[in-house]
Amino acid sequence: MVEHGFVKVERGIVTRKGRYYVRFEKAGKTITEVTDATTVTPARKERAKRIGQVAEHRHVSKREQRVTVGVLLDGLLESWTKRKVASLASASCQLEAVREEFGDMPARDLKKGRMQDYIDAGATPAERSTRSGRIAILKAAMRRALDNEIIDRLPAFPKRIRNKRKGHMNPEEFEDQMTRFEGVDVDAYRMLYTSGQRLRRILDLRDTDVDTLRWVVVEQDPNGNKQRPEIRLRGELRRIIERRLRAVAAPGGHLFHYDGHPISGGALSQRWKRAMRDQGLKWMVHDFRRSAYANLLNAGVDTLVAERIIGHKTQSMASDYIQTDAIAGAMDAAIDARDRYVAKRLAATGFAVPVKNSVHEEVNQ
Length: 365
Description:
The protein contains 15 helices and twelve strands. The chain is of the alpha+beta class.
């Protein structure tokens, strides 16, 4: 019998152009592989050997032997692009760093020790953390390949190292910095520091995003993997938004703008970095987010409620069981407590007098 150029010799053994091939089942599929056999007897032995490898989950196909880490990274990058993940540009840069180090290596040859050596080569804890994050990208690429049956197993991976930054500003430190800025920049920085939201989310806000009946910034669809939760406008947050609503250049316009022109996140970040560099400080714009969370915890707010306010993507499963009305009330109380904590701390350190109208009901008067 001739099939696609193959001539059947016996069950599971075929020939084509003088070469012997063996056929066997793997994961419900029929695999045909070439052998070095020149007669049927060694071909039988090769087939039995490969059937045994499949049974012991040790079989590696020719395709799997050829696939490189670079091919797996290509697949991951394509997936990221289709999903329009947030921070695609920076994530792609990290992926390319992985490709430079491991791209030409056969995926089957990747071992835990090789990856650990790469991490340990970092000169500082921050660099080792960055390298560990790149290994996490490699792990994601290999998991995707496993799901798509491009490879049949994963290697062991080193434990993830996270560079847990502790950078946050106390209220008096923040107020001291605000004396160095002016105009809409101050409102933007105050909104970031008080709300704990990400820079791009705040700069994208328009007047249509504010519900003035409920006094909230409405929840928006996530930007990639970045959450955009509802922002409850009470106390300081409401005062900031009220100022920005009065300053909107035209209906539907941005809340934070320069004469009607949107503010560049890069420009705002650079102004902050320049001010920090001039003072020999290392605070980053993202430290506003950490500061907002720290202020909530220092005000005695439960971590679950603080996570909801900040909009952390990963929250305790217990948060799913809190009734909507209950969590809304808890969030309002948390924001009020946070405002009282900040005002009290500023008064104690001589930076400001506590704001009496810090709770929502009094602001309405």
